[in-house]
UniProtKB/TrEMBL annotation:
It comes from the Bacteria. Pfam families: Cas_Cas5d. The keyword Transcription does not apply. This is CRISPR system Cascade subunit CasD.
């Protein structure tokens, strides 16, 4: 089994899985549907093209830098008749960094890796106003999803490292499939498996997600004072 790793970093990201009407939420970590949408765009797939092969990939994400949620308040007027449109709120993640992984067939993943490095369509992190910053693909590794996410380097700046303690604990979430037990772990269900990206009728299925034991990383650049929040992922 192989895993394609992606570094998801940008000034703003937005990963909605249940937004409706005038309030557009973001989850605190990337969604599977959002990341698979990015991969489909990289390959040049149209919205009506099938995505069953991508949906079958197992997905996981590591929270390297949680960022913070900010709110954008928007107003609009319809150009045709000047009517005032409903007020809307859009939520974003600011200054967050994640490592996401998809596990599956090696040949498919290597094709996706090449597509991400030379995408057919512009790529964005959940919303078109959120282009990725810096290197996106971390390459394909031949191991299982959890090992790949645990072993990947911590993808944050030195300035951020200095703000943390000498040991950090990174949140780790993954699809419950693949034999992972859910009885003794923090788990939840989200409607986050893309069945169709068609603009006329987007469809999503459900998936079970488990929150695994955090990934502990040594941080030689960190401070030595007591950090009571280290076990929660740092400041």
């Amino acid at each position: 089994m192989s895993v394609l790793l992606l570094r998801l970093a940008a000034p703003l990201q937005a990963w909605g899985d249940s937004s409706r009407f005038t309030r557009r939420e973001t989850r605190p970590e990337p969604t599977k549907s959002g990341v698979l949408g990015l991969l489909a765009a990289a390959q040049g797939r149209r919205r009506t093209d099938p995505v069953e092969d991508l949906a079958a990939l197992r997905f996981g994400v590591r929270v390297d830098q949680p960022g913070r949620i900010i709110r954008d308040f928007q107003t609009a007027i319809r150009i045709s008749d000047g009517a005032v449109m409903p007020l809307s709120y859009r939520y974003y993640l600011s200054d967050a960094v994640f490592v996401a992984g998809v596990e599956g067939d090696a040949e498919l993943l290597r094709g996706l890796d090449e597509a991400v490095r030379a995408p057919a369509f512009p790529l964005y992190l959940g919303r078109r106003s959120c282009p990725p910053a810096g290197r996106l693909s971390l390459g394909v590794v031949d191991t299982d999803l959890e090992s790949a996410l645990r072993d990947a380097d911590w993808q944050v700046s030195r300035a951020y490292r200095k703000e943390q303690g000498q040991t950090v604990h990174l949140d780790l979430l993954a699809d419950a499939s693949g034999g992972l037990p859910t009885d003794d772990q923090d788990s939840f269900t989200v409607r986050d498996v893309p069945l169709s990206f068609s603009s006329e009728r987007r469809e999503y299925g459900w998936r079970d997600v488990v929150r695994l034991a955090p990934v502990a990383k040594d941080n030689p650049d960190g401070h030595q004072r007591e950090d009571f929040f280290a076990a929660l992922g740092g400041a």
